[in-house]
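Section 4.2 – Deliverable D4.2 (structural model, holo form)

The reporting period included a commitment to supply a predicted holo structure for the target in complex with zinc ion. Inputs used:
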Amino acid sequence: MALNRIVLYYQFAPISDPTAVMLWQRALCEKLGLRGRIIVSKHGINGTVGGEIDAVKQYTKETRQYPGFKGMEFKWSEGGAEDFPRLSVKARDEIVAFGAPDELQVDENGVVGGGVHLKPEEVNKLVEERGDEVVFFDGRNAFEAKIGKFKNAIVPDVRTTHDFIKEIESGKYDDLKDKPVVTYCTGGIRCEILSALMKNRGFKEIYQIDGGIVRYGEKYGDKELWEGSLYVFDKRMHMEFTPDTVTIGKCEQCGAPSNKFENCANEDCRELILLCPECAADDSKRVCPDGCATVAA
Ligand SMILES: [Zn+2]
Ligand SMILES: [Zn+2]
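Output (structure tokens):
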């Protein structure tokens, strides 16, 4: 049986004709029998594809031939084409939907005016040197932080990435404008944009973690500044960096420890809710505690 793999990747690079790049990427994936999701915009590319290992290798090689993608890093993981329902390759206004396609500036070095990149060891060093002054600012959707986050992190009230601009302009975080703020997200892509948007709005000392939580967790697990599980956007739903990860999430129905999200049983909702196995198995509890419970009844 052939070996299969998945790659995850992104690159910020100016793309003058995103539609042409999208068509080239689609043809390339079809030729190689890959499935997955790819988004191309004038700011770059963001994708995850899976397939037979030699086909994926060939894909990375050919993709790097585009001048702006030459230095692109591909993160390899277990899995294959069967982990995706289909191949979806799209040209959009943004590779991550912050609702700021004209604000984000990208040049051959990546995002212009973003936060200072910190390696995992530099994150720890910053905290050693500056102590409690350092603020961790979660760059993900709020629900993701329910099962894991940096200790004492601020989790902004965002349902989707689109809510960030409204949130950072709300005044709620104005006291952070003179503090060292470390933004973080799963793999780093969302903070590339978020850190630039924050700097544009007067946050003076903004950092971002190179490779995001994934790289930090690979280096330090949950022994240092990270606690809990990591929400992931595939069928696993969550992952742990060590066998002794503490379950910090709580079932939204009964409060028991949980790190597994389920879709609300209300067909009009389908929102992700955190449930323990017992409540997840009970149809009357497999719904959002406020609002959807009455629909199910
Ligand atoms: Zn429960
Ligand atoms: Zn619901």
